Amino acid sequence: MKAKDLLGRRGEELAAEYLESLGMLIVERNWRCPDGEIDIVALDGDALVIAEVKTRRSLAYGHPFEAVGADKLARLHRLGSAWCRDHGLRLPLRRVDVIAVLDDGVGKPTVEHLREVL
Amino acid sequence: MALGRAYSVALVGLNGYIVEVEADIGQTLPAFVLLGLPDASLNEARDRIRSAAQNSGIPLSRRKITANLVPASLPKRGSGFDLAIAMSVLRAAEDIRPTGRTVFIAELGLDGRLRPVRGILPAVMSAVQAGFHDIVVAHANAAEAELVPGAKVRGYRTLARLVFDFGADPQELVLDLAPEDEPAGTEPVSVDAPAPDMCDVSGQAEARRALEVAAAGAHHLLLTGPPGAGKTMLAERLPGLLPDLRDTEAMEVTAIHSLCQLPSAGVQLVRRPPFENPHHSATAAAIIGGGSGLPRPGAASRAHRGILFLDEAPEYERRVLDALRQPLESGELVIHRSAGAAAYPARFQLVLAANPCPCGKASGKGLECTCTPFMRRRYMSRMSGPLLDRVDIQLQVDRVSLADFGQSGGAEDSAAVGARVLAARASQLQRLQPWGMETNSQVPGRILRGELRLAAATTRILDHALERGVLTARGYDRVLRLAWTLADLAGREQPDGNDIGQALSLRQTASAAA
Question: Which of A79, B2, B49, B68 is surrounded by the most beta carbons within 10 Å?
Fold first, then answer.
């Protein structure tokens, strides 16, 4: 595994722990379909949460949040529908969250969470 | 929910409106949204501000920034809002303390430098009128902004220095930019060429006299004559005869010039009447002002309180010449474009120069002229009647004679003539003050034939000419105006019969054409 993939995996791990600490239920991780991948699928009460995790070592190439553009959000929305279809579920309350993890490998990683960006 | 607020000024023509910039930082994905009818250069402000803040050591929030320019319905353009937007966003993030009623007008460089913008003088004037006295501008604009009485101007070189003064944490700030990075000046090097002097003109006693009268009474002037007679030379010497602009006039002129050019280092009030000399291929938009979006001032407005010289006047497009009738009447140009209407002052003294015919030889006996009478008539008729109607002095300039040409020196210089003009202006002002006018050229016929009526014995030749139909009613008034100026130049209380006679002779081509 390459270093960048290791970093991403560690970030997703941290993000999942963080969501659980908020009382959410992690339903599935790294769900893939031909259109792409959902990092974390979780349930927050009645709402289905499609979470995208972005991990960076530093801010040198911009903040992780800045890497989530309009097309990425649109895809996450589509993937949310696809996930529901795939599991035969009808969940009208659906939202997309974005989680930024900053981990320089030395200090304690920071996790930032934006709820309902779409 | 954080909200920041800062003020700036939007210029519509020469009128400025206070614009309130509100900034809000929302808890969602990073974005920078600019609301309130920004144009392209203003929309680019988002990227300039982000870089400038980053490079000043006070990066903007990495959340969704919404900046709104109120009133939203007023179209805004240009880069002068950069600083106000940056300050409101930084305030929204609570990086600085509230800016209160301070007005910010400057463009931001990517390195965090404050760069000068056009139109600082009218913008600051409007801000002070609206009750906003604290003004922050780029250092290069400070001298110009300080011309406005009542403005407390602070000029800054960098964003970092400015936010430091507004209480930003100095630890991260990049306070000192390397001086060698100072961008090369974009300012043109202005060389003040000495104004051409009257003593260069040999002979042409009549034309010299006409020029003096035109300067004294601010009368519009038409010079016709063959090529080489010295029409252009004479016209270029008219500004040198005019008195310095007074404070209010100087502010108006400087404000227009501030809109037209980027500030140079040593900005000061324009004290000398401007001289605009557009080429005859100029379009109506170039002369009266125009352009897409909000119109910009043209040559007529740049000649405000000075001289608009149209050399080879019949060569201009007719509609360009006729477009000048409105400002000649009202002293103002209102130009409408998609983004709104702008009003620019345009109270200029019009000087027209023309050849007598297309080949230019139809003066004197005109034996060498190859033009048909029809061509000649059509050439002169390009200057429409209504336009020429407003030109008080219409003078034929002939080629200088050998006797005069040989004589060099001895001619009066501009300073001596200018002194007489100044005295004549003073007596006009004193007489015309009750009606709120300054020069004889402004006096309407109603007053000339009413309160300022001359004795019947004095105006006998005129009355006679009117009776015989040689002179129109409007022509009658114009002769009266000129006569008053002649009397003012001679230091007489009132025009006498002699002045009337001379005034008649200053309109010779018009009567010849009639």
Answer: B49
Rounded distance, CA B498 to CA B251, Å? 39
Query: H-type helices in B180-317, by residue range?
Result: 205-217, 231-236, 247-260, 284-288, 299-302
B29 touches chain A (CB under 8 A): yes
Please name each of the domains of chain B with its CATH number: 2-181 (3.30.230.10), 198-205+220-236+246-399 (3.40.50.300)
**Any alpha helices (H) in B373-459, and if so which ranges?**
373-380, 385-388, 402-406, 414-432, 445-448
What CA–CA distance (Å, rounded) separates B293 from B40?
Answer: 11
Q: Which of B27, B29, B33, B65 is the mutation pick for testing A, counting most A CBs within 10 A?
A: B29
Q: CA B78, B83, B87 angle in degrees (round to 5)?
A: 140
pLDDT tens profile A36-66: 999 999 999 889 999 999 999 888 888 888 8
Q: What is the DSSP letter of B440?
A: G
Distance CA A4, CA A7 (A): 5
- CATH code where residue A27 lies: 3.40.1350.10
At B199-250, the pLDDT tens digits run 888 778 888 889 999 999 999 999 988 888 888 888 999 988 999 888 888 8
Q: DSSP readout, B279-319?
A: -TT--HHHHHEE-SSS-EE-HHHHTTTSEEEETTGGGS-HH
What is the model's pLDDT at position A1? 67
**pTM for the complete prediction?**
0.78
Q: Can you give the length of chain B in residues?
A: 514
Range of the structural domain that residue A11 is part of = 3-114
Asked whether B163 and B95 are in contact (CB, 8 A), the reply is yes
In chain B, what residues touch A66 (CB-CB under 8 Å)?
Answer: 30, 62
Which pLDDT score, from 0 to 100, does residue A43 have? 92
d(CA B403, CA B416): 24
- Predicted-complex ipTM score: 0.74
B62 Cβ under 8 Å from any chain A Cβ: yes
Give, to the nearest 10 degrees, the angle between helix B473-490 and helix B497-505. 120
